[in-house]
Design brief:
With 292 residues, the chain is an all-alpha fold. Helices cover 75% and strands 0% of the residues. It has two domains: 113 residues, Farnesyl Diphosphate Synthase (Orthogonal Bundle); 146 residues, Farnesyl Diphosphate Synthase (Orthogonal Bundle).
Length: 292
């Protein structure tokens, strides 16, 4: 590896650590080369997403996103310029990462620049696929897998993760004038948009939140069903993320869906414990099979 690539990976790993992301805990389960590659992917996705999440820092978000699209082109052409692109180009070459999933991520960020409401679950699921499921489809190429069911596993996990994020951040998004919960669902439960924007926890909104939490739970369940036995060890990091995000969803339920107070989050020890549990489970199965 060239000194330039080594420095670029260090830059991406530093960004990942400082982000204090739930994903960072899962990365720790991986060998160093795979962990570095995931840090490059995370840094790229985070840089694109921050264009929307930090609008004050982005005078021309459309132009900035186009620059990241150009950097993606450069990374796949082997001529990256930005440190994130340098690390990403190396990861692309080492793990054969598919270009279309990165393009889907950028298309998802573009959706955030173009709209702040979604009419139906079908509309929202397209957004969730682009900004989360596509990331999962990149990650499993780095994790490694044998059974093709891993791809649908990654899709359902991505949909569940993003929906969990949306439900956790209803209040925060409302303060920015954004509503991701489908309008059709709000109408079904007779819940005015103004309640989400104003942070009013009404009975109608509780019903909406319960409905969307059940939808997220369904996708977690499908992912669990699709995880093949032969991929449990290689996808332990993905399972760590599942355990962490499912616990976030449970916290929303325990609050009776009130997400307008302190942000729903897990402590560092809780995340660490769930990550370790995800690593231990497939290894215990392996040893039990040997003992049997």
């Amino acid at each position: 590896m060239t000194p330039r690539a080594t420095a670029a990976y260090a830059h991406c790993e530093d960004l990942t650590r400082r982000a204090a992301s739930n994903f960072a805990w899962a990365f720790r389960l991986l060998p160093h080369d795979r962990r570095r590659a995931l840090a490059a992917v995370y840094a790229f996705c985070r840089a694109a997403d921050d264009i929307v999440d930090e609008p004050g820092a982005a005078r021309d978000p459309v132009h900035l996103l186009e620059r990241w699209r150009d950097e993606l082109d450069a990374a796949f052409a082997g001529r990256p310029r930005h440190p994130i692109g340098v690390a990403l180009a190396d990861a692309i070459e080492r793990f054969g990462l598919p270009r279309q999933h990165f393009e889907a991520v950028i298309a998802g960020v573009e959706m955030d620049l173009q709209r702040d409401r979604y009419e139906t679950w079908e509309d929202l699921s397209e957004y969730c696929y682009r900004v989360a499921a596509a990331v999962g489809l990149i990650c499993i190429e780095i994790f490694g897998y044998e059974n093709p069911s891993a791809r649908q596993y990654a899709v359902h996990l991505g949909l569940a993760f993003q929906l969990t994020n949306i439900l956790r951040d209803v209040g925060e998004d409302g303060r920015r004038g954004r509503i991701y919960v489908p309008r059709a669902d709000l109408r079904y439960f007779d819940c005015p948009e103004e309640d989400l924007l104003a942070g009013r926890m009404t009975e109608a909104l509780r019903q909406v939140m319960a409905f969307e939490c059940a939808r997220a739970g369904e996708h977690y369940g499908r992912a669990r069903f699709l995880l093949a036995e032969e991929d449990r060890q290689s996808l332990a990091a993905a399972e760590a993320m599942r355990l962490i995000y499912e616990q976030l969803l449970r916290r929303i339920l325990f609050r009776r869906y009130d997400v307008f107070g302190p942000k729903v989050r897990l402590t560092r020890p809780e995340k660490a414990g769930l990550a370790v549990a995800a690593w231990v489970r497939p290894h215990l199965r392996f040893f039990y099979r040997l003992a049997g």
